[in-house]
Amino acid sequence: MQGRKPSRWLKAFFKEHRYFVCMETYLEDEDQLFIVARYVQRLYEHMKEPMLALRTVDKVRLVMEVLLPEAVICSISALEGLDYQSAEKKFLSGPYVCPHERKVLDSVIRRRRKRSRANKELLCTPPKSEPTP
Q1: Least CB-packed of 12, 37, 72, 128 within 10 Å?
Q2: What confidence tens digit (pLDDT) does each residue in 52-109 have?
Q3: Quick check: 69 and 91 in contact, CB under 8 A?
């Protein structure tokens, strides 16, 4: 946050024509994600002198697109005894999902899509008029 270490996440954040890809974060659920995001947000808020370029940016985007991924990468590095580059590579490849788990998840997604399409068709089909006696 003070510009001492180069960050690929910060470089991507400042690119004009960039897009952000949603990825798995190795966190258990959204509550855990919220706790970590709030923690890095507080760290940023309590910085005495952040980089000059960071003073005018959208703080939410900065936390979600730069600080949160870097915090997770540092956690992976510390927990698994990896250097930063190896931890970043592991982060980018996402957590391991066993084939059975992937199959179950794909099945759930297909069922939801099928149900969603059926509901749309019901909403788009005009009601049949009943014959008048």
Answers
A1: 128
A2: 556 667 788 778 888 888 888 888 999 999 998 999 898 888 777 778 887 888 888 8
A3: yes
Tokens of 45: 């808020």
Tokens of 80: 């698994």
Which residue in 43, 29, 33 sits closest to 64, CA to CA?
A: 33
In the three-class reduction of DSSP (H, G, I as helix; E, B as strand; rest coil), residue 57 is classed as coil
Instruction: Write down the number of H helices and E strands in the chain.
Output: 6, 0
| Predicted structure pTM score | 0.58
Percent of the chain with pLDDT over 90: 6
What is the predicted pLDDT for the residue at 57? 72
Residue written as token pair 């470089």: 11
Determine the distance from the C-alpha atom of residue 2 to the mean position of all C-alpha atoms in its chain, rounded to a whole number: 24
96: amino acid identity, one letter: Y
User: Could you give the CA distance from residue 26 to residue 73 in angstroms, rounded to a whole number?
Assistant: 10
Q: State how far the alpha carbon of 9 is from the alpha carbons of 39, 65, 93, in Å.
A: 18, 7, 15
